[in-house]
Amino acid sequence: MEKLAYDFYNRADVLTIARELLGKVLVTQFNGIATAGRIVETEAYAGENDRASHAYGGRRTARTEVMYGRPGTAYVYLCYGIHHLFNVVTNREEVPHAVLVRAIAPLQGIPDMLLRTGRAKPDHSLGRGPGNVSRALGITTRYTGWNLASREMFIAQDGFAPAAAEVAVTPRIGVNYAGEDALLPYRFILKDSPYVSGKKQVRS
Question: What ranges do the domains of the chain cover?
Fold first, then answer.
């Protein structure tokens, strides 16, 4: 596998990045435990002009400040006080774009993923949904701000690239508070993956 370079993340079009993250491999190596999964579902968040973004309107808090930082950095936040959600910071510094990884297909370290998630056997829920992604890979908010080219956590290309016909584009999930922006086609999925959460196909 080859780690994605800084230039992959340092681009202006967050939708292109979210689409191109499909099929890439998210890897963690924490405390000697290696786990990895292929990314099969992403959502793009377009910063200050996107009502669904944590940075909408130029909002800057201790939590969101990482979004204004270096592209290729992890932004991990706690949802409902339970779920650690993993995002990739993109674009240039001071432009708070990000991509949420919503689902993975487990590839490596499945026994450790089962231990982390409390499951007895692997099924399609293991990497389905952003909370399960982080739980399976051992990602918590302590890793927010982490460089995604590090040894401990990175995203890599292993030669797999989905064809256009294998990808569907839909509105994002769970952002009804964003008004009209909730309808934007900012979610990207691999159509045939059983790990994808929610409705699989709205438009392609």
Answer: 2-190
Report, in this order, helix, strand and coil percent for the chain, each rounded to 5.
25, 30, 40
The full length of the chain comes to 204
CATH topology for 2-190 is 3-methyladenine DNA Glycosylase; Chain A (3.10.300)
The token pair at 23 is 């099929």
User: b/e for 109-125, b at 16 or more Cβ within 10 A?
Assistant: bbebbbebeebeeeeee
**Amino acid identity at 45:** Y
Q: Are 138 and 33 in contact (CB under 8 A)?
A: yes
Short-list 135, 34, 19, 36, CA closest to 88: 19
Extended beta strands in the chain, E state: 2-3, 25-30, 33-45, 74-79, 83-90, 97-108, 153-157, 167-170, 187-190
- Which residues, in sequence order, are CB contacts of 137 under 8 Å at separation 6+? 26, 28, 35, 36, 37, 86, 104, 113
H helices of 22-177, in order, are 110-117, 130-137
pLDDT in tens, 18-43: 999 999 999 999 999 999 999 999 99
pLDDT single digits (tens) 144-160:
999 999 999 999 999 99
pTM of the model: 0.95
- What's the rounded Cα separation, in Å, for the pair 147 and 56? 24
